[in-house]
Specification:
Helix content is 8%, strand content 50%. By secondary structure, the chain is mostly beta strands. The protein has a single domain, classed as Porin, CATH 2.40.160.40. It has a twelve-stranded antiparallel β-barrel. Strand 7 and strand 8 form a beta hairpin. The N and C termini lie far apart (43 Å).
């Protein structure tokens, strides 16, 4: 009996099996923390350990509902409203093992209309309501007051372009059967959004990250992990209390329920972006949990559907409804 090195044919067969059980199209949810303040800074959404070899286009819609009201130490923080973000992300393979990317968001802050639904949703699943039943429904009030000075305030519906991100990716490692991959990415987020309306941060933000994908270790589960660091330049929102750098990371587990459906659980976290703030949790570690799945559509289309919650309370939106349609060609 031959127990030597597997033949190339055997390796190819293994690769096909792994691809079916943990599909390459079912990577992490492209879902950043859409908290109305921390989302302004350049923490990139999670990506896989594979860079684009051809053209990859993703269009996403995130509807984030927020309800935070806190008074402490002479400060008032009120984040009550709904933030909707439509995002177009393009990744283009430009040379062997290299990828160029651009993200273009369009942001709207409004009172929304989901408060009643979310209260029922929280009651059904036993989630805490916080102060939801004590404040007016479907109101927009994003405000921070410190020492009687209003440092941010949005009370009327507003929309416009957000901060544009440009990225460069490099494939560092790919296993012969494509069961494992590691990629590094660098990104610059430009202050193209209006800071006064909480559409942009007002600062240029730089990020460096490394991402890995593994479909063999926890087979048949797919594991995606990423870690990175964000550097925020001078200027911008709440500059006096802002950290100059922060760490971020993400873990995604995907379970293939068939050739066209993968269920996914994802955790995203980052270190504090601010310091020395008494009201609210802007200077706490943030964590968001998302649950949903990816459906493979005809051709090379895929649809992501997910619901995200603030795993660390008030450090992320109360609820985010996420849809993303993508295609590779």
């Amino acid at each position: 009996m031959n127990i030597g090195i597997p033949s190339r044919h055997a390796v190819n067969v293994l690769g096909i099996v792994l691809a079916l059980l943990a599909p390459s199209w079912a990577g992490p949810f492209y879902l950043p923390n859409e908290h109305p303040v921390t989302r302004l800074f350049g923490i990139p959404p999670a990506e896989s350990g594979f860079v684009a070899e051809r053209t990859f286009l993703l269009a996403s819609l995130d509807i984030a509902n927020n309800s935070t009201d806190d008074l402490a130490g002479g400060e008032v923080l009120m984040l009550d409203g709904e933030t909707t973000v439509a995002r177009l992300a393009l990744r283009q393979g430009v040379a062997e093992k290299w990828e160029l990317g651009v993200d273009i968001p369009y942001v709207r802050h409004a009172g929304g209309g989901l408060d009643g639904f979310i209260e029922s949703y929280h009651d059904t699943f036993g989630f805490p309501q916080g102060n939801r039943k004590e404040i007016p429904a479907d109101r927009l009030r994003y405000a921070y007051v410190r020492d009687l000075k209003t440092l941010l305030y949005v009370a009327d519906a507003v929309d416009g372009p957000g901060d544009i991100r440009v990225s460069l990716g490099r494939q560092l490692y790919t296993a012969a059967d494509r069961s494992r991959a590691v990629a590094a990415r660098a990104a610059v987020e430009w202050p193209t959004g209006e800071r006064a309306d909480l559409l942009g941060s007002g600062s240029t933000d730089l990020s460096l990250s490394i991402a890995g994908t593994d479909t063999a270790w926890l087979h048949p589960l797919r594991l995606d992990v990423s870690l990175g660091v964000l550097v925020m330049t001078g200027g911008g929102l709440l500059e006096e209390w802002r950290e100059t750098a922060a760490g971020f990371g993400s873990v995604t587990l995907g379970w293939p329920a068939g050739k066209r459906l993968v269920f996914k659980l994802q955790l995203d976290a980052h270190s504090p972006l601010f310091h020395g703030l008494e009201a609210g949790t802007l200077d706490d570690w943030a964590c968001q949990a998302a649950l949903g799945g990816t459906l493979r559509l005809p051709g090379t289309w895929a649809l992501d559907i997910a619901v995200a919650e603030d795993a660390a309370v008030t450090t992320a939106p109360d609820v985010v409804f996420h849809l993303a349609l993508s295609r590779e060609w």
